[in-house]
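Annotated sample (chain length 273).
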Amino acid sequence: MSYNLLKGKKGIIFGALDEKSIAWKTAERVHEEGGEFVLSNAPIALRMGSIKELAKNTNAEIIPADATKMEDINKLVDQSTEKLGGKLDFVLHSIGMSVNVRKGKHYTDQNHDWTQKGFDVSALSFHKVMQSLYQKEAMNEWGSIVALSYMAAQRVFPDYNDMADNKAYLESVGRSFGYFFGEKFKVRVNTISQSPTPTTAGQGVKGFNEFIDYADKMSPLGNATAGECADYTVSLFSDLTKKVTLQNLFHDGGFSNVGVSNALMEFLKEKKL
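Output written by the structure step:
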């Protein structure tokens, strides 16, 4: 169901890879709500995914950009405002990658060159994107910037590895840069701490399928899907949340506030029988 929540609004969506990704689902929902946008991802990701199909279905332009390079980001912001005909109203940062996770390196035995690469892609890129938007005054008043996070930023999930550190930095950048963006330009900045979601990137984490089942049993409302996260992101892009900023917002079916659930206790009892 569409409510025209984003009619006339323009923005950039980073990170859409395939139909499993939250950025992909968000792009579809933004289009349904009347928003226009540019899609962006790293050149290598564009070759791996099927983003051209998404662009066709949503009447969006694709502008490749390496989010670790300020030169690429600056060009992307300039080209986006030119193609969209003005300043931006929303930006989604949905970028994450850990070489250590991908190659099976334990947290206590990291390849720190890989750690630096993952940090640059997953976390520092958020600061770089906002720095470009801020310095170029590319956002409209009451615009909204959202990045996707995970509660491993606050709690230990051993196999999430160095991505937990990346998310902690990401959330801190959201608060710190969000203060300056709000004070000067009345722009909102928030992060969404989403349920474990079976995206292409998420499924690369060891034991991911088992953890999804655990989280679902722990959450009174069950895990939030990629599509539901897209709905929530649209609400943060809309004018209905104009005074929500500097927040890390848990979108996880209640998981983050549950110590133990009846469903999990019953499951553990059955395992003993």
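Annotation: The mean pLDDT is 94.
Annotation: The CA atoms of residues 61 and 200 lie 23 Å apart.
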